[in-house]
Amino acid sequence: MTGKDSYDNLSQHQLALWQELQDLVNGESVVFSIRGVELTLTMKLTFPADMSAHWSAFKVGGGGKKDTDCVCGRCNVPYSHLGRVFTSYTVKPGDTLQKIADMHDIDVAELRIINPAGDDVYERALSCLDYEYHCEGNHTRPEDCKCYTSPRNVPVEKLKDDQDILAAPARQQRRGDFYLRVHKVHAMDRQLPPEALLQVAHERCPFCMEHCVQRVVECFLRHLQSKVINEAPPSKSRSRATHDDQKAAVDRLNQAFYNHGCSYR
Question: Among 20, 46, 42, 22, which Cα is nearest to 32's?
Fold first, then answer.
């Protein structure tokens, strides 16, 4: 078995191995002997979430050509949603900043960071990653859409961590819903097909920290590069940017990365 092995190879030559592994995953004990003493051990196996061969064993993830295809072997995020970093949360009666942060498994300081004042330079940067938009142009891919209209209207800088958001005087004076920006959480435990060589819950398939950080950073950088390409300004009074205009914009972005010590291309 190699890290890039295919489903056909794994199923044709290793079915007995996968059945034994499935039995261990299901809790079957292993009996062995050490210096004549017989011992029984139950093992808890984990499997890399970022190895191509394991995507093959699960028969999901790591492939697909349509924007609606799921990219991951463990969650339900499609390719078209990979850049959706944030979404909007509708504040409910009794909600506090601390309660909402706990609900999304983040520190309340993080919730404040991603909800800066509307005229803040960080707000302009964060709004570029707001992909839970109400698209008015029937765009199927986030990079094709500029309908960034995620609602966010709670001035968190005026609230204490444990203060009831809707009970604050400023909230009581206006009607309508109140929203906060929160991290997008995609549904986990993608259903595996019956022919999968292993049936394993997603908690048993962790990413190594190096690959986890690498994937997050790469997704972010590719998103920035996509925005630069799609929003490149046209030159010479043209109405639309040409390929050369887009390449020049990407070259400027790459040079900025290089100037800051990043060799990403």
Answer: 42
CB 61 within 8 A of CB 207: no
| Cα(265)–Cα(262) distance, integer angstroms | 9
pLDDT tens, residue by residue, 115-171: 988 777 777 667 666 654 456 666 665 556 656 556 778 889 889 999 999 887 655
pTM (predicted TM-score): 0.61
Residues 177, 123 share a domain: yes
Q: Are residues 217 and 149 in the same domain?
A: no
Residue 44 C-alpha from the chain's centroid: 27
Kindly state the tokens that stand for 150.
Answer: 């995620």
The candidate with the shortest Cα–Cα distance to 148, out of 233, 230, 245, 79, is 230
| pLDDT 10s digits, 177-224 | 899 999 887 778 888 889 999 998 888 888 778 877 877 787 777 778
* 3-state SS, residue 125: helix
Domains held by the chain: number: 2
Q: 172 and 94: one domain? A: yes
In SS3 terms, 192-204 reads as: CCCCCCCCCCHHH
In a domain, 257, yes or no: no
Round to whole Å and give the CA distance between 186 and 77.
6
What phi, psi does 126 have (nearest 5°)? -65, -35
- What six digits make up the tokens of 147? 């309908």
